[in-house]
Structures are given as C-alpha cells and as structure tokens.
Amino acid sequence: MTDPTTNPTEERAGVAASAHALTVVLEPDGSLRRVVRVGPTSTVARLEPGLPVYELAAAICGASAEPALWEAQLSAVREHPAVAVQFEVTVDPTANATQRVRREVVATPVLDRTGQLDCVVLQCSIGRQVDDGSVPIDPDADRFEELVAALPALVWSALPDGSLAYLSPEWERFTGIPVPRMLTNGYYDLIHADDLPAVASQQLEFDDDDRFDFPAFRLLHASGEYRWVDTSVVAVRNESGQIQRILGVTTDAASMHDAQIAEQRLSEQLSAALEVAGLGRFDVDIGTGLARLDARGREILGLERGDFDSPPLPIEALVATSHPDDTERVKAAIQRVFDGTDTKYRTQSRRVVQTPAGPMIRNVLGVGRLEPREHGHSHFVGVIHDLTAESAAAAAGLRAQKHEALGTLAGGIAHDFNNMISAITMSADVLEAEVARGGQPDEGIAEIRAAAERAAKLVRRLVSLSQDSAPELLPVDVSELAREVCTLMRPTLPRRVELVPPSPLTRVPPVLGSDRDLRQVLLNLIDNAGQELAEGGRIEVRVDTVELDSVAAAAFTRGAALGAGRYVRLVVTDDGPGIPADGLARIFDPFFTTRRPGGGTGLGLTATQSIVRGHGGAITADNRIGARGAEFRVLLPQADGG
Fold it and tell me: Is it the case that residue 571 has pLDDT exceeding 80?
C-alpha cells in the first residue's frame, strides 16, 4: 500500500514524531506541506497544507507568536541545511493551561538524493514551563508521552469529527506501516472485510464515565495475518461539556480470542461426549449455592426444562427430587463438599421423577469434585448418570447369580441338613424311650431344640440370600459376617480345601450396608476361589481397617473415583493357579469366566463389583506376589462415627 502524499525523501529520513505534541513537514519556503502528528495532549486545531510559516506560528503560539523569530530560524536552516536548529517560543494560555508557557521547537532539514533541501521537519515539544521559570504547569507531560510510546498497546487519539490526530509507535510495529502514512490514510483498509461494516457504522455511545468499548474486530498484522483486537475509548470534554478529543487504546486480543475459541470447542466436544454417553452435567457455585445443569441433567433429575445457559437453580432443587429415604443421605454428601470436608462426591440415590405416565423412580449416580477457582468462589462440578436400566440389568444378573449360588449351596448343605434331621430323629427316639421308662426328658428336649434352631438358622440364611426386595442399609460388622459366611460355605467346598475365617478376636468398625448383599459378596468370592481348588488348597479370609489419602485411594482403584478416608478392608486369598494374565483386565466383565463351558454364568464377580460400588467401595483382583494364587481386596467405607 503506497501513500501518494508521502515524499520518498521523508520516508528515507524516517519522518515520524516521538515524544512531541506536534510534528509537521514544511516546504523549503516555510509553508506547510503536511501534518505528521498531533499528539494526544496537543490543543492545536487542524492545519491546512500551504499554510505560511507566520500563520503556523500564530496557530501554535497565539498572540504571542513571533513571526520574525520563526522566519529567522528557517532561514538559518536553508543557509546551513546540514544542521538542525533549536529554539524556544512563547505560547499563550489555553483551556488546558492558564499561564503562558515555553515550548521547544526543533527544525530539522531533510535533503533529497542530490543533496538539495527537500523539506524541513518541525517538532514542538509538549514540555511546558511558566515564563518566570517557576514550577512547570504539567511536569508529567513528557513522562506521559514516553510511557505511551513504551506501551505494548496501540494508543491513538482522534478529533471529534473522527479524523486521526495521533498514533503511538506501537502501531507501526504492529502493522508494519509508518505512522505518518496511517495518519494520512487512516487504518480502515487494515480491518478485515467482514468486520469493517460494523466498525465503520459503530456509534460511540459513551457511558457515565465517558467510556465506550468497541466490539472485537480483526486487524491486519505485519505478519500478513489478521489478529483480533479489542478497543476501548474515552471522551475528553471541554468546560462546556463538548467532546474535544477521543482517546483510544487498541490491544492485541488474538491469544485471548484463540483461547476463547479453544474453550468453546472443548465445551462443544464435552457436550457431544456427554450426550453420546447419556450423561448430564452440573456446575454449582459454592458461594451462592446456585446450580447450572445441561438439558440431560435436568431431564434425569426431573427438573424444569432448560440448558446450561438457563437461569441457575438453587441446590435445594436438586435435592428435592430425591426419594424420601435417600434425601438426608444426599444432603449430607453435598454438605460435606460445601464444607470442604470432602473434595470428591459420589452418591447413588433414587429420584422420584414425574412423567406423562405417572411418577417413576430412577436410580441416579452423581459424581463430582470441588474445583477451586483463582478468582471468585469454588465450584462443585460433575456429571449425573441415569443407572435405572443398568440397575435393572444388574439386578437380573444378580438374581441369576443367586440362583447359581443357591444351586451350589443346596448340594453342600444337604449333608448338614440331613445331620440336623438325624439329630432330631435320634433325640426323639431317645426321648420316647426315656419317657417309656418313666425318666426325665429334659436332656432330649434340649437336643431337639438345638438341632431345630440350627436348621432354622440355615433356612433363614438361604431365604435372605434368595430375596429380591430392596436392601435395608444398616451398620454391618464385616468380621462377624465373614465368620458366618465361612461357616455356611465350608460344606460346599471340596474336602481337601481348607477355609480359614477371620480370627474371633478380629474387631473392625461397622460399615453402612446391606447384610444380605455383603453376604453375597463373600459367598461369591469364596465360591470363586473354591472353584480353582478342585485338587485341594487353602482359602483365607481376612478383615482389617486401613486409612487412605487421595493418592493411595487412586492407586488402589487405578484412578477410579474413591475418596480419601477410613475403610474396612476385606481380603480373600487362595493358593490356586491364579488368574490368567489376559483375564486380569476383564475379570469383572459380564459373562467373562475362566471356568470350563457350563461351569458358571460369568456374572458372579460382575454382581460382586456392582454391590461393592453400590456401597461406595471398590474391589480389585490380582495374583499374589511371591506366592501362588489370587487375591481379591474389597474396601468399604466405615460408617459415620466408625
């Protein structure tokens, strides 16, 4: 882009102002060729080309102008065109200065290629001083100009009619175009064609502070690419309230805009991923207690329709749809996050959702974490998963697995049950003979009662195992439960298999859970170990406690959601062949089994993992280190106060 009004000699001489209020180019005869720059603090009105030097002096100095001084200095430049001339002039009071001041003027000759005087560059400083040499009226003016020149922003000023009066040196560094050329031509031709109409038609609507922000637009950079810029302007008014000048700052917002675009793309990708997975998203401001949910999250919880940009809802609205039996537990879990007691959240609860067909109960899993923000309140963010269909499938699998377990137990307990019946029969025969002889039947009756109670207890365990009703969550002593299950399972194992229960001295804090479901976990793990020990071996069940920090918890679950805290640990080991290397990663997958065809459904460990996770715990499977066999470890959170 060329500027027909710019003299090549001026460009070679680098004609541009630095820290000066006014820079003009004069013809050799002293008349005005053009204005290069009017600084942001200048009060000089617009100057027209061809203006004689004495009128230029009057425009700058007012009534105090000394035309003869200006003529003499320019004559000196013409006579010695290799030397710049410096002189001072007196300036009359203005609206910005109530006293007469002195300005420094520098006249620099510019020669053409033949060595002849082509023009004179005249620069007037903005440093002002009182005539009597006392304190300067504006001692920071020069400092202000230097500061503006050093700023990485594009600083500019314009007259009320919109014509440019000043551009900081940064404009040339940003665009690669000399400032004098842009002052003459403006910079509209540097604005992206798609953004130009909006910028050109923009009306300046100043606020109460006389400020206005332009919408972002793209500006041509020296590299040849368009960069996004932000522009803020402020109006400078005179005593009568009229706008005298407009000051503006344009900043390179490319990196910020790119970051915003990248963030928007990530948000869109996240939304797409959540939609595919059927998950809902939530974001709760801890300070205000207001929650934002996307459309899927609102649908899962049965809330009014909306999306992430809809007005936020109070956190109480998210709790209100909880099943009455789960409400307090959900409240407590959320409160722990708000209090900072927990930084992670994982709660499974039932939700009562109104549908066109009537109210329905959904099984919903909420997983989230506390996310500190550098500025403002922390946020509680996470996802919501509707587990209703999965829970139904898991329940069906669990029922199938229970039937399998019952079949296994039936053969094992038949012998025990026959022994109890035999004991009852024999005791009855003895009792009958004793009565016939006229003896006391007390001892026989006691034997019959004990045998009957053992049989009843065994039946109750079987009934409990076969029930499909919703479990009741109560404090459970895992060590005592493990001993009971070992007693129940011992007859079902091959004769050469030794089953070692936890020591009677083992005492651990209770866990909050379902006695029936946790019993099922132990049955599955012991039965699974027994299947690998057809030729005999040893199964050991241990129970203890462990306290994990967040790092150890993540390591135990290989990164899965398990928070720091105190846990009851249940370990079942065997000395069998162990788990095949290619089976470790799939050991909990549905229908995966290492048994021979027809030897099992492959749902036992899947159901076990589902139960453990439903209790807020985790389970892992590994081969034992330094010994034969497999080891299953279960972590269950201790009940509150445990």
Answer: yes
Q: Are residues 248 and 167 in the same domain?
A: yes
The yes-or-no verdict on residue 10 having pLDDT over 80 is no
What confidence tens digit (pLDDT) does each residue in 185-204 have?
Answer: 777 788 899 988 888 777 77
Using CB atoms within 10 A of its CB, is residue 215 exposed (0-12), middle (13-18) or buried (19+)? Answer: exposed
Cβ-based neighbours of 182, under 8 Å, separated by 6 or more = 164, 167, 171, 172, 175
User: Is residue 136 within 8 Å of residue 125, measured between CB atoms?
Assistant: no
Q: Is residue 422 part of a domain?
A: no
Write 175-178 long-range contacts (CB < 8 A, 24+): 175/219, 175/220, 175/221, 175/222, 176/221, 176/222, 177/1, 178/6, 178/11, 178/16
Helix (H) or strand (E) holding 282: strand 279-285
245 and 265 fall within a common domain? no
Same domain? For 539 and 489 the reply is yes
**How many other β-carbons are positioned within 10 Å of the β-carbon of residue 568?**
25
Q: What confidence score (pLDDT) does residue 543 get? A: 96
User: CATH no. for residue 220?
Assistant: 3.30.450.20
Question: Domains in the chain: how many in total?
Answer: 4
Measure the CA–CA gap between 70 and 107, rounded to whole angstroms: 10
Distance, in Å, from the CA atom of 433 to the CA atom of 583, rounded to the nearest integer, reads: 61
Which tens digit of pLDDT belongs to each residue from 598-621?
445 456 787 788 888 888 888 999
Q: Is residue 395 part of a domain?
A: no
Whether residue 248 is found in the same domain as residue 265? no
Gap between the Cα atoms of 258 and 253, Å rounded: 8
> Domain containing 486 — which CATH number?
3.30.565.10
For residue 417, being part of any structural domain is answered with no
Taking the whole predicted model, whether its pTM rises above 0.85 is answered as no
Q: State whether 494 and 477 are in the same domain.
A: yes
Instruction: Indicate the pairing of strand 497-500 with strand 537-548.
Output: parallel
Cross-strand partners of 301:
none
Same domain, 129 and 167: no
Structure tokens at 164: 């440019």
For residues 269 and 243, membership in a common domain is answered with: no
pLDDT tens string 407-430: 555 545 555 565 666 666 666 666
Which structural domain range is residue 196 located in?
151-252
Q: Where are the beta strands (DSSP E) in 127-257?
A: 154-158, 164-167, 211-220, 226-237, 243-252
Same domain for 115 and 58 = yes
User: Tell me, what's the pLDDT at 19?
Assistant: 40
pLDDT digits 0-9 by tens, 359-414: 778 888 888 888 887 666 788 888 888 877 665 555 555 555 555 555 555 545 55
